[in-house]
Amino acid sequence: MSLLPSVSASKKALHAHGWLGLLTGAALYFICLSGALAVFLPQFERWEQPDIPEYLSYSADNIEKAYLTALSKPEQLGHDMVIRLPTSDKPRATMYLQDGTHYINQDGSVSSLANHPFSELLVNLHLYLHLPKSFGMILVSICGAIMCGLIISGFVAHRRIRKDAFALRLNSSQRTADIHNRLSVWGTPFYLVIAVTGAFFGLAAWFNWILAETLYDGDRSAVVEEVYASAPLLEGIGEPVAISKILEAMPAIAPKATPFYITIEDINTPKQYVIVGASHENRLIYAEQYRFAPDGSYLDKAGFSDGEPGRQVIFSTYQIHFGWFDGLAIQFIYLGFGLALTVISASGINIWLNKRKYRDVINPAWEGILWGAPLAIASCAFTQIAFNWISVAECWLIILAATVCAIAINNDSKIKSIFCFTTGLVLVATSIAHVAHFGADAIRGVSLGVNIAGLAAAAFMGWLGWRSSNDIIKATPVALK
């Protein structure tokens, strides 16, 4: 009995694969491109403010000092307070207040506001496509679910998958299809993990509703408590929290865990309690949550590290999706696979366009979107560093302008060449502006690494532009239908 799908099943899968790709093609391209870059969000945040002092060692008393400083200004307090402790990827302590995120100096004083709008623009593009968050998150998650369908239908449609696993005809008319198919096959386990975890984030509310209706008589709060643990029932007087005592107790309570955030729930109320989030070495969970009474008495832990398997899996999706575990090497692996997924999304549209056997306005418009997106992201980074100005409108206006220009040019090779060269120049200008603005802070540590990466990306875009310029004479404009 053959394990291969029937010819009929393969044809139906190919048809479904094509329509699924078309329905989400451009959206998946933006999501994958921004997601590949967002893997380095911790580095981008430090690059945007390289003049902020960094440190890893801190005093529990000084963290409490910062908390008490914030407590003296009750108008700045929200429902909860979050203090993030310095870690190797973000060696800066921060405190989240009503007016924004403040840095905490090593001596416990509260300093300037965190300001990394480029990083926020990038991650919001990935999570919400710059749409209203409630709608954007669901749309992006649906794209993740559709990506699962694309992966499965692509496998069913490709009957020669074992024979063609390493076929790569770069100098033939099948180059685009071969690149699309080979990258799809080689990275399938990664893509499935990203698609499933991405779908989970936005669709979790729907899962919550389904579980509540089927297992908990419609009580959604019961589902939340089952997954994330119910809040402890405390009746105090809203006294200040013993932050120092709590942090000093952590090594004895969890000797193998590293605290990296503190959350004071229901701050300044009789029901307030403290959560200490701690990472566990060689575990994919985002954190285990250790809970304390305001006086520093240890209560319990949520059980994300050793509780029900489902709870452990759910609290691991964040780290797995973004690649924020086990250091820089994992981030580069995620970058590689993320860019491969970006190429797959783009080449899928190109394959569909090539199969049509005719050319209309969609062809140059897609080229404008394809090469306008990197230009828009690079331009937003430049205007933020050079002029301290950035906006979502800027990003999409550049993409729109690139699309209009591409339609006017109507020559794919020329479009690619112009936009690649321009993007390369903007990346070089961004690194120069960064050095001019921040001086010595721009040429050391993480900032130096980001600037060098920017120049390397500029060189790559320049090479793509040069390579494409050689094809301009061959690709003469064709009248659009």
Helix count from the secondary structure assignment: 16
What percent of residues adopt helix (DSSP H or I)? 55-70%
Report, as a whole number of angstroms, the end-to-end distance: 49 Å
Give the structural class: alpha+beta
Strand count? 8
The largest β sheet comes out as: 8 strands, antiparallel
| Percentage beta strand | 5-15%
Low confidence ranges: 13-19
* Overall pLDDT score: 86
Largest sheet, spatial ordering of strands: 4-3-2-1-5-6-7-8
Radius of gyration equals 25 Å
Number of discrete domains: 3
Shape: globular
Order of helices and strands: HHHEEEEHHHHHHEEEEHHHHHHH
Offer a quick outline of the entry.
The chain has about 475 residues and is of the alpha+beta class. Helices cover about 60% and strands about 10% of the residues. It is built from 16 helices and 8 strands.
